[in-house]
Amino acid sequence: MPGAGSTGAWGHGVDPGRRHNFLLLLSTNVITKGAWAASLFLLLHHFGPRDFGVLAALWALGGLVAGFADLGVGQVLLRNGARTPGLARAIAGQALKLQIGLSLLLFGILVVGAHAFLPTPGLVGDAKWSVIIFSIAATLFDRMSALFTVFSQLAGSYHSFSLYRSGYFVALLATFLAIIRANAGLEIIALGYFLLTLLFLLPTGFETWKRLPASTAIPVPSLPGLIRQGVWFLGGTGLTIAYGRVEVLLLGFFAFTAFAGVYHIAYQLVLLVFSVSGIFFTIIYPRLYRHQRDAAALRTDYLDTVRWLSLLAWAAVLPLMLYAEPILQLIGGTPLRKYADLLRVLSGLILLLPGAAALNFLLPLDLVKQRVMSDLLGLGTTFIIVCGVLVAHIPSAVSAAAVAGYTVAVAAAFFYAASARILNPLVMLRELFIIGWRGGVALAITAWLTLNWWQGSLLYLLLFTALLVATGQPSIRKLLYGRTTAIFH
Questions:
Q1: Cα–Cα distance, 52 to 123 (Å, whole number)
Q2: CB 257 within 8 A of CB 54
Q3: Which one, of 401, 86, 124, lies nearest residue 263 by Cα?
Q4: What is the distance between the terminal CA atoms of the chain, rounded to a whole angstrom?
Q5: Whole-number Å distance between alpha carbons of 459 and 451
Q6: Which of 401, 123, 133, 127 is nearest to 250 (CA)?
Q7: Are the beta carbons of 62 and 196 closer than 8 angstroms?
Q8: Running DSSP on this structure, what letter comes out for residue 86?
Q9: HSE (side-chain half, CA atoms, 13 Å) at 303
Q10: Rounded to an integer, what distance in angstroms lies between the CA atom of residue 280 and that of residue 337?
Q11: I want to staple 291 with a disulfide (CB 3.0 to 4.6 A). Which of 3, 116, 358, 403 is the partner?
């Protein structure tokens, strides 16, 4: 019986495999996100906001379109492969061929379009073509790593994937550093990015493919049939990666390239926090798909997830708001201090992080259309507001537009989740309040003292943790001591 005896995605009993996978992916995330952030900081320091903004806009364009390159078949693979492992390898082969073919087609279209319409100040002739070609190619084909993540999820093993992805981002950092020391231009940066992407992508795909479950004699849906199943998933996955990229792309097209570069950097800081949420869902998605109809387990999964994400949100958002100026100065020098309000406003996205639980649970509930509608409403709101503020020449308001758009998406997901009678979206607001007032007290004490950013952040986290332990509700104590979830055991 599906879900019989289950205790939720986190589990009330010890699950060494899930604990190991979480720690493995967490360490991989620290390495990859840290190396990528350091790479971006180096590029911003060396080339300045304007030239770096050109790269950011091209990466946003390639990454935005790349999310649609598998037509949603990757998520069909995850769902059907989790429920019927014997289908996994056959569907994976079709998904891989489809994504390669569409990526090549999209590559040609994007290169011509970017050359014709995207402002690239300081780049002309062959240099402009080179930067556009290699930047778009790198982001398009790097997106295939998302498909290889699905391979690892179905195999239940992340070792090869984690090793190659960590090596890839560390190699990128070393390559960018060498290119900068040689005082080379943007075109060499773009070329190095593309070549390293190919160098690491091929062995990653080969190693994760080998670990897929063996095929069995089960009829496999045709490729057109898989595409029909994937249409709504296509919207869900493609729209998810559009957050943050739409704003950068519009800033680039409206010729605010310097602001696009700074916004991209600020958004990466926020994504460092969101990436932890991504690790949770990477691990638990296969199980959620398998136990879709186990309402009791899903409610437990949802409550535990919201509690963890609420803790994460309050732990990260307040120090980021309080120390926005010194953090930006550390990244890009004194000139970036004037963008502190941009980072403070954008940090508001982190408080919506627990809302990602409602958004992400819609997929395993097979409420794919509702997930797409939530993201469409959010991104549509963002697009309209961003276009308005850029026409009015107020690029500083783009961060507020991003927060407003994501708020709309979360609110829509709340409505759909409540309609499903599985999840109670008000749980998020309750847990945010229960945990948040401790964060406010810790922040007030920290702000009262004159400390630099790293000392203040460390003190805040220590005070926040102490207040949670000393005054927390039983649910908080259980999370901190590991009695509700076995993921850290």
A1: 12
A2: yes
A3: 401
A4: 27
A5: 9
A6: 401
A7: no
A8: G
A9: 17
A10: 33
A11: 3
d(CA 8, CA 286): 13
- Rounded mean pLDDT, 211-233: 78
Contacts of 339 (CB under 8 A, 6+ apart): 262, 266, 328
Extract the tokens encoding 362: 């819609």
Distance CA 72, CA 231 (A): 6
In angstroms, the CA 448 to CA 446 distance is 5
Could you tell me which residues come within 8 angstroms of residue 274 by beta carbon, excluding any fewer than 6 positions away?
A: 349, 350, 353, 356
Q: In whole angstroms, what is the distance from residue 466 CA to residue 477 CA?
A: 11
**Closest among 257, 189, 187 to 42, alpha carbons compared:** 189
Of 414, 393, 404, 389, give the one whose Cα is nearest residue 346: 404
Q: Report which DSSP code applies to 110.
A: H
Q: Locate 179 and state its tokens.
A: 């290119």
Q: Which has the closest alpha carbon to 383: 480, 260, 242, 201?
A: 242
Rounded CA gap, 48 and 69, in Å? Answer: 32
Give the total residue count for the chain. Answer: 489
Candidates 186, 38, 28; CA nearest to 122 is: 186
Contact yes or no for 477/469 (Cβ under 8 A): yes
What CA–CA distance (Å, rounded) separates 412 from 425?
Answer: 11
Q: Say which range, 66-70, 290-294, 389-393, has the weakest mean pLDDT.
A: 290-294
- C-alpha distances (whole Å) from 46 to each of 172, 174, 181, 183, 194 are 16, 15, 10, 9, 20
434 closest CA partner among 473, 387, 481, 460 = 473
Rounded to 5 degrees, what are φ and ψ at 355? -65, -20
pTM for this prediction: 0.77
- In the DSSP assignment, the letter for residue 255 is T
In angstroms, the CA 438 to CA 130 distance is 52
State the DSSP code for 395.
G
Give the model's pLDDT for residue 398: 94
Token pair for 178:
């060498």
Query: What's at 121, amino acid-wise?
Result: P
**pLDDT per position as a tens digit, 241-278:** 888 899 998 998 887 888 888 898 899 889 888 887 77
Separation CA 385–CA 390 (nearest Å)? 9
